[in-house]
Design goal:
single chain, 54 residues, 2 helices, extended
């Protein structure tokens, strides 16, 4: 989400996971993918949601 100005702070403490998180920085979403994210239902909270809430 850094592509649209949001900072991402990984919560990993394991060195392997930290390296894996850093390696995911080298990509970008297409404009169509960004538009699809913006079009998601903004009235629902997906933070800490389980499958039963989706």
């Amino acid at each position: 989400m850094m592509q649209i100005g949001f900072s991402v702070i990984p919560g990993a403490t394991d060195h392997g996971y930290i390296k894996e998180n850093i390696s995911t920085i080298d990509f970008a979403l297409s404009q169509a993918e960004m538009d699809a994210i913006r079009d998601l239902n903004k009235e629902r909270c997906f933070f800490n949601a389980c499958q039963c809430h989706l």
